[in-house]
Amino acid sequence: MSELAEGGREAAGAGGAARGPDLFDLTDRVAVITGATRGLGRAIAGAFCRAGADVVVVSRNATSCEMVATELRAEGGLAAGHACHVGHWDELGQLADSVYDRYGRIDVLVNNAGISPLYDRLSNVTEEHWDKVIAVNLKGPFRLSALVGERMAAAAGGSIINVSSTGAVRPTADIVPYAAAKAGINAMTAGLAAALGPKVRVNTIMPGPFLTSIARQWDMDMLARRTQTFPLRRAGDADEIVGTALYFASDASSFTTGAVLAVDGGARWGVPGASGAAVTAGRSSAERT
Ligand SMILES: NC(=O)c1ccc[n+]([C@@H]2O[C@H](COP(=O)([O-])OP(=O)(O)OC[C@H]3O[C@@H](n4cnc5c(N)ncnc54)[C@H](OP(=O)(O)O)[C@@H]3O)[C@@H](O)[C@H]2O)c1
């Protein structure tokens, strides 16, 4: 390998040169995870702790953040809580400053916090609804990536992971503002990867339906019919996100940046009528493959 190529790999973000026997190891890395008190973020926080990271648990609710950090420490991990509303520009500066004051570094940032409030018809989407969905799902991840990414680039590098949604590429009538924000995340991923490379990698996980607290507002019969069209015939469990998050956070993905990876049971390839094949094969939506 040429000197230039070696140098590029060393600067590949999140310690590209420090390849140990376990490519997914996060020992000594500081990871900030927004929306880490429930659902996908909570699953990622647990997995990162088990991989050795020092995890900062972020959500709006200080008590929930502290509770989850306490649970993670009880499981043997390193964790602290920090309350922050990711839709509030100024709070993001305070979050970044306080983590840098305490740890002196951030190696992994996961922009996971997101909301998808319901509406009954397009004309009932208020300006407040629109602004909040864009603020939490798009503005916040941009601002936090800018604040943390530039400091990562000026130091040892790092990995930024965004969480979008398959709604970005297959929007439905009931999620138009959310889908627009998540499509913005997908677009932002390539732009941030270009802006923050070569030392910082920026990638996006694009989930399909997962059975987290967000799912409480769904029509489960409709979901069952829909998932029957997916190649994997079901929705995901929160812990099924962690493999992808560990991949993007760790040296395992040292040559991957600007990527948007769907974790959706094949939802994008769902074909109406595929449920007939599933019934013929004697499978149900609850069945795991
Ligand atoms: N579940 C799915 O089917 C699915 C599908 C596609 C994409 N996604 C995306 O995956 C991510 C996680 O979703 P999830 O299903 O795990 O959601 P969830 O179970 O509802 O959890 C959301 C997390 O975000 C936090 N949060 C919400 N608003 C916040 C804000 N303004 N500032 C800081 N934290 C905030 C919540 O804590 P507090 O309420 O205490 O602040 C909670 O920890 C989201 O970006 C979502 O859009 C989910």
Question: Secondary-structure map with pairings?
Answer:
Layout: H1 3-10, E1 30-34, H2 39-50, E2 54-59, H3 62-74, E3 78-83, H4 89-103, E4 108-111, H5 127-154, E5 158-163, H6 176-196, E6 200-207, H7 220-227, H8 242-249, E7 260-263, H9 274-280
Parallel strand pairs: 1-2, 1-4, 2-3, 4-5, 5-6, 6-7
The chain binds NADP nicotinamide-adenine-dinucleotide phosphate.
Features:
binds NADP nicotinamide-adenine-dinucleotide phosphate, 7-stranded parallel β-sheet, 289 residues, Rossmann fold, 42% helix, disordered N terminus, 13% strand, disordered C terminus, alpha/beta, 7 strands
Tell me what you see in this structure.
- This protein is of the alpha/beta class.
- It is 42% helix and 13% strand.
- It has one domain: NAD(P)-binding Rossmann-like Domain (Rossmann fold), CATH 3.40.50.720.
- It has a seven-stranded parallel sheet with strand order 3-2-1-4-5-6-7, sandwiched between helices.
- NADP nicotinamide-adenine-dinucleotide phosphate (NAP) binds at residues 34-41, 59-61, 64, 84-87, 112-116, 136, 163, 165, 207, 209-210, 212-214.
